[in-house]
């Protein structure tokens, strides 16, 4: 067993391992909720989002963008924290049942693989603006918007810190 998995209590999974874990949960009639994001610089908005997602019921799977997809979404210099470390931090949270790193820009392929009952998205989305909404519905799930208002942003925190430093 790798050092990473020891620290994560077996919560950090490959895509294949996640499919097997989800099948085990479904065999026990557990619902599955999927949350996803970059999670670069974990902040209170992330914690509130994940806690609200867990409250939707069942097992909470958190999909973390791989480094290259974070860079394509957020720009050069990002992520600040490598994907494996972001996954380890998330796996340490009580509300999180499994973590998977994904290379794509969105979670459509992962949704097709695990068919979550719910995809939880943050309040920077509306139910109609979730990019993967069509695939969630196609797979028999629903989209829920959870968490507090989008008052916290790692991108804004970084920008603000750099502006203060440079002034």
Given the C-alpha coordinates, what overall shape results? globular
Strand tally: 5
Task: Give start-end ranges of low-pLDDT stretches.
Answer: 1-7
Radius of gyration: 16 Å
Mean pLDDT: 89
Largest sheet: 5 strands, parallel
Give, in order, the helices and strands. HHEHEHHEHEHEH
The proportion of residues forming helix, as a percent range, comes to 40-55%
Q: How far is the first residue's CA from the last residue's CA?
A: 48 Å
The number of helical elements comes to: 8
Strand order of the largest sheet: 3-2-1-4-5
What tags apply to this protein structure?
single chain; 167 residues; alpha/beta; five-stranded parallel β-sheet; 5 strands; globular; disordered N terminus
Structure description:
This protein is of the alpha/beta class and 167 residues long. The protein contains eight helices and five strands; from the N terminus they run H-H-E-H-E-H-H-E-H-E-H-E-H. It has helices at residues 3-7, 15-27, 44-54, 67-74, 83-91, 108-114, 133-138, 154-166; strands spanning 32-37, 59-65, 98-102, 118-121, 142-145. The protein has a five-stranded parallel sheet with strand order 3-2-1-4-5. It starts with a helix and ends with a helix. The model is unreliable at 1-7 (pLDDT under 50).
């Amino acid at each position: 067993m790798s050092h990473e998995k020891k620290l994560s209590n077996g919560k950090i999974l490959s895509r294949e391992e996640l499919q097997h874990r989800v099948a085990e949960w479904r065999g026990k009639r557990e619902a599955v909720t999927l949350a996803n994001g970059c999670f670069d610089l974990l902040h209170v908005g992330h914690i509130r989002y994940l806690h609200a997602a867990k409250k939707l019921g069942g097992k909470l799977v958190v999909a973390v963008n791989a480094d290259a997809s974070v860079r394509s979404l957020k720009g050069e210099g990002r992520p600040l924290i490598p994907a494996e470390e972001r996954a380890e931090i998330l796996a340490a949270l009580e509300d999180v049942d499994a973590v998977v790193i994904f290379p794509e820009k969105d979670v459509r392929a992962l949704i097709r693989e695990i068919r979550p009952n719910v995809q939880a998205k943050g309040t920077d989305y509306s139910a109609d603006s979730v990019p993967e909404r069509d695939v969630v519905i196609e797979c028999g799930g629903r989209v829920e918007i959870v968490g507090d208002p989008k008052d916290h942003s790692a991108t804004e925190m970084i920008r603000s810190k750099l502006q203060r430093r440079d002034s």
